[in-house]
Structures are given as C-alpha cells and as structure tokens.
Specification:
Layout (H helix, E strand, L loop, with lengths): L14 H11 L7 E8 L3 E2 L4 E10 L9 E3 L3 E3 L2 E3 L5 E3 L3 E3 L5 E8 L4 E12 L5 E12 L6 E16 L7 E17 L3 H5 L2 H10 L6 E5 L10 E11 L6 E12 L3 E8 L1 E2 L6 E2 L5 E8 L3 H4 L5 E12 L2 E8 L22 E8 L2 H9 L5 E12 L5 E14 L2
C-alpha cells in the first residue's frame, strides 16, 4: 500500500509515523489489528469446569497493544449484534490487556456435551477515524460425564499341561485348551486412577498391602435380569502307556454353553510379594483376578442349564480308535477350578506369575477419557511341581473388549 507524506510535516515524518503517534496517545486507536489470539488452557473440559483463557492483541506492524479493552459478552457494532460465546460463558464482561498486549480471564463451560465456542471482540478506531471491530475465537470440547459402567465381551484361553511324574519322563500326560466367550458388565471407580497418581495414596497401599480395585466385571445380564450364557470350547488330548508304548489315548472336544455360572474379574494395582518386602509397582502395572462364581444355581434351579456335546475318539486297542459322541449332562460345570493368578510365589514347588495387564498405560488413559472401544490384554502362568507325583503348568491369555455406556 502506498502511503502519502503530508506537506507541511517536517522532513522524513511519514504517515506511518503519524499512525503510530495516534496509537500511542490513544488507547482506542490501532493501525489495523493483525492478530487477535484466543488461547484456552485446555482443549477438552468437563461440564461446568472453569479454565483460564488468554487473549493477545497485536497490531499489523507486530506491536503488542497494551491497555485495550476486550469485550467478553457480545454487544453491538454498526447496528448489528455481536454473538456471545456458546455452551459456556466468560466470568467477566470485559478484560484489559497488559503491557505485552495480553489479558487473562476465566471461562466456565456449559452443561451440554460437545463444542463450545469462545468469542471475544475489541472495538477501535483507525488513525483516519474509521471504526473497526476485531474478532477473536477459539473452540473447546465439553466432554460427556465420565461413565463408570461398560459393556463388552471376554475371550479367555486357559491351557493346562500335566504329566506324571514329570514332563521329562511322563507315564501319563494330559493337555487341555479351554476357550471361554462371555458377554460382560463392567464398572470402574471414576476416581480410582486419579487417586493412584497421588504419592500419599500409593504410599498407603504400599504400607497396608490393601488390594485396591480399580475395575471389575461379571457376566452380563439379559433385559430380564437373567445371566447370559457362557460359551465354552474345551479341547483335550491324553497320552499314556495303557497299550504298551506311550501314545495318544484320547482326543476330544466339548462344545457347550451354560447360564449356570458367571465369569468375574477384578483389576488391582500390582503388589509384588514373595521376598518378605511388599511394594506397589511404580510403573502403574496392574494384575487381574479372574474366577468363576455362582455355580450353585446350576444345581439348585432347573432353569439354569448346560447344553452341548462331546465329540472325539478314544483308543480301544493298540491300533484302533473308537468315535465318541454324546450330549453333555445339563448339570455339567464347564468352568475352570481355578483361574486366579495371585501375584506371589506360594512355595518352592508352586510358582505363580500373576495375570498381568499387557497395556497398563493405555488402560489408564482410556478410563480417564473413555471413548470408543478398548481391549484389555492379560497374560499369566502358574507352575506346580508335585514332589515326583505330578507336574502341572497352566497359561492363560485373556482379551476383554469393552465400551462405555451412558
């Protein structure tokens, strides 16, 4: 833009000098505001949360603009209304910039989940006398209230390998892989993860050894309040010397489902044990207790039943197998006797690696800001040496997918 040099002014005195002088002597005058920056301290907030918002006014020559009034509650300009902020409000009606052209005020979000628009204005005159209005805007997201209830599904695979007297010289050997599918209802304590971030709170757990649940679940109920069925597949192979050589004796598969018992799980911070010193894992690790309950109703109420079939083959001679196929008894319990990996070594002959969460950090982040679906990955193992009678090893892999519900 070409600017005139007015006659009568002293040599070298330009129109831009004139504009700057007018700006310096009058807080209502700016050359032309180039930047009106609105910066909320957070991009995501809770309902009704108060946050600090910073404004910065900069003129077209890069000069910060001190002492300028910022309008925070809309108003009028040129006969038209200036829109207010949406889904929240500033706690002041105006603010005045400091020597750096900056002002800070509080904004309180609304109660509706979704977008909030923060709108601010500054009315001023150009050195030529024309009236202008600068406009600043920012958007933040008002989050839904953090849910504490979830729905999902679980797949647990329990693999057990036993041998008598031991794995290296077995006389009898059995391998079983049990896979369970269950719909789950889950719940979290909304403040539990925040509490664990406090050193004094973690210290209390460290001192007392209390198991502090942060997330738990049970087999989901139907709309009528009845437990959903747990679907189960159990594949088994046994080997022995019944017909001379050590060889396969039986292989079969059980496919069934039952509403006569429940899967349960509870997530705890990982407490290390077994050395005489108990400590909580400093890397936010978690262990999980996974177990079955409620199986008494399978035997006390006829409406809770197990259905399914067994199919496979059984050796009846050295070189001959017989097919096996039969219906499962409706009172059959297809669960596991124990699937509870306590984080400890119980004895020299029994070693337990806890059912450890493989993705603890992302689990914490999801509970703090639950959106979409999360997959909980768990892995554990325990081993028992039976003093020359039997050795047993069990591994367990679990995936639990869950989504928050309103």
């Amino acid at each position: 833009m070409c600017r005139q040099i007015y006659s009568g002014w002293k040599h070298g005195y330009s129109f831009r000098n004139y504009e700057k002088e007018k700006r310096e002597n009058n807080r209502d005058v700016n050359i032309y505001i180039d930047k009106f920056i609105v910066t909320p301290e957070k991009s995501k907030v809770k309902k009704g949360e108060e946050i600090e918002v910073e404004f910065k006014l900069v003129d077209c020559d890069g000069t910060p603009l001190p002492g300028r009034e910022v309008l925070l509650q809309g108003g009028t300009f040129g006969g038209s209304s200036l829109a207010r902020s949406t889904n929240g409000r500033f706690l002041n009606s105006t603010a005045v910039t400091n020597d750096q052209g900056i002002a800070k005020v509080k904004f309180k979000s609304g109660i509706s989940p979704g977008k909030a628009v923060l709108r601010t204005y500054h009315k001023y005159f150009k050195p030529s006398g024309e009236e202008y209005c600068a406009y600043g805007e920012a958007e933040i997201e008002v989050k839904k209230e953090r849910p504490d209830k979830y729905l999902g599904k679980m797949k647990a695979t329990v693999t057990t390998h036993t041998a008598s007297p031991n794995f290296s010289e077995p006389v009898e050997e059995k391998k079983t892989e049990s896979t369970y599918f269950s719909f789950m209802e889950m719940q979290s304590s909304c403040g539990s993860i925040e509490n664990l971030s406090k050193p004094e709170f973690r210290g209390n757990i460290f001192q007392t050894g209390v198991q502090y649940p942060v997330f738990w679940g049970i087999t989901a109920r139907t709309d009528l309040g009845e437990p959903n069925k747990v679907k189960t597949t159990i594949k088994t192979k046994t080997y022995d010397e019944q017909f001379g050589d050590f060889q396969l004796f039986y292989e079969g598969t059980i496919e069934g489902e039952s509403n006569g018992y429940d899967w349960n799980f509870t997530v705890f911070p990982y407490l290390r044990q077994g050395t005489g010193i108990q400590s909580i894992d400093t890397k936010s690790q978690y262990c999980v207790k996974l177990y079955m309950t409620g199986n008494m109703r399978l035997h006390t109420d006829p409406k809770y039943k197990t259905t399914g079939r067994v199919h496979g083959r059984k050796r009846i001679d050295v070189n001959k197998f017989e097919d096996v196929s039969e219906t499962i008894d409706e009172d059959s319990y297809l669960g596991v006797a124990q699937c509870d990996c306590d984080p400890q070594v119980q004895s020299d002959e029994q070693h337990v690696l806890p059912l450890i969460m493989q993705n603890p950090r992302s689990f914490e982040e999801f509970l703090l800001d639950p959106e979409g679906t999360f997959t909980l990955d768990l892995s554990g193992r325990w081993y028992q040496q039976g003093g020359g009678v039997e050795e047993a090893e069990t591994t367990i892999e679990v995936k639990i997918d869950f989504t928050p519900i309103d």
